[in-house]
Design a protein that fits this description.
Blueprint lengths: L1 H8 L13 E4 L1 E9 L5 E9 L5 E7 L3 E4 L10 H6 L6 H11 L11 E4 H30 L1 H6 L2 H20 L4 E3 L6 E4 L4 H7 L24 E5 L6 E5 H13 L6 E3 L3 H10 L9 H17 L1 E5 L6 E3 L5 E3 H6 L1 H6 L2 H22 L4 E5 L4 E5 L3 H7 L9 E5 L10 E5 L10 H19 L1
Antiparallel strand pairs: 1-4, 2-3, 3-6, 4-5, 7-8, 9-10, 11-12, 12-13, 13-14, 15-16, 17-18
The site of zinc ion has 9 residues, from loops.
Length: 452
Amino acid sequence: MEIQNQTNKAPIRPALVKDSIIFKSTKCECHVDTVHDEYGVETNTLGIRKAQANVELPLQYLPRKGLSLLADAKKDSPDLLLDFVFIECGDSKALADFFSNYGFLFPVPEWKFARFDLQQIWALQKRLKYTLDLVAELQYHKKLQDAGEDLKQSLDTTEEIIHYSRVYQDVCQLLFSEPVTLTNPKSGKDIYRSCNHAFTELLNSPELPAWHEPVPFPVIDDSDKPEWTEKVKDPVRSPRFLLSNKDKRDAYDLVEMQDIDDPVRLLINPARLFDIFRRMDMFDRPLSPEQQEIVAFFYHAENELGHICLERGRDDFGFTKDLESAISIEAQMKKEKVKKYFDADMKRALIHVAVYVLKEEIDHNLHDVNLSYNAEAHSLKWDISNFLTALYYSIFYNQPGAERFRRCKNPECKRHPIFRLSNSDSRSVYCSRACQSVISQRELREKKKHSD
Ligand SMILES: [Zn+2]
């Protein structure tokens, strides 16, 4: 009985005792500069060094606070992960303030300023934001699964489509965004490289893996008659899928159609995807079952939902048909004819794909975490080599299932559109009192308007 009580109380205890603070950051001095090269191309750089006073900032993990300043443990200390992720993109002053107060993502010198390309830092923040968003969506999905049929039935279909289109956007952002590289300005060595996902590598590598038996490639002719068909392995709509000559022609034609000046850019080469899908279980080094599911999922998604693309001047991905314009993922998935294709098989596969992609992304960003012996405390502790890794680590609380993330119910929330709460808490729906009062005042005004 006593043991039971202890487990119930566990979530309100600090995750780690004072001895096992796992990361020490240092305050920084920083500024943003705009430089022009010989052709007039503008680049914004962040100049940063350790503050002269060399103020060490011990950080620790607290329940429902994530990574926080040790000194602020009793006060309302900031959740550094959320504070960093939700700095508005482009607000370089807020970004510089964050690094001044809490230190830079990687170690910097104390006697001179190191310079980094600001665009790469924003790209890095964006990846962390999409990772966090995906964690929140997958936790929401699990909550729904655990809740049983009644609650699932009560979820309206629009809400469900919004949920899946968010998962789709997050997955594609992590797979197909331009890779991020931060270079040490002095040595020229890379300090950080973003995760290169196995599926992206497969799509982009110059050659396809070798396969066992060379199967004669069918001749493509101009007639629309599907004179050639082939059954291929299909983990999504198992067990087999019928590919035809026409499918191949459509995929190759789209590649031909693509022009460097097009206002939209395809993120997946359709011909390449076709070839991989057709051969994926015949490679000499076979793809893992998870990889095969990703390939099959994207083959269906590209052909049934639309071609995932990036429109010039935009940040989020969309779908395109004609390479001229794009439509948002959410708007496309709400269309009746698209909804029909996004069936239970595809929903299940998307969640599997999301879980796999998230695992690759987080594992990559935690590879610097090591377990070591703490001689003073006679215990083990986690060593974390830089602030960015500490932030990724802080997505998860040490006690599995104790915490989760939720989307703030204020649709215009700027503070923490995703916030952390205890897993058993089903009542908190706003990130802060401020958001709660914005919405309740709005509701009050609406009510008044109706009664007048
Ligand atoms: Zn909010």
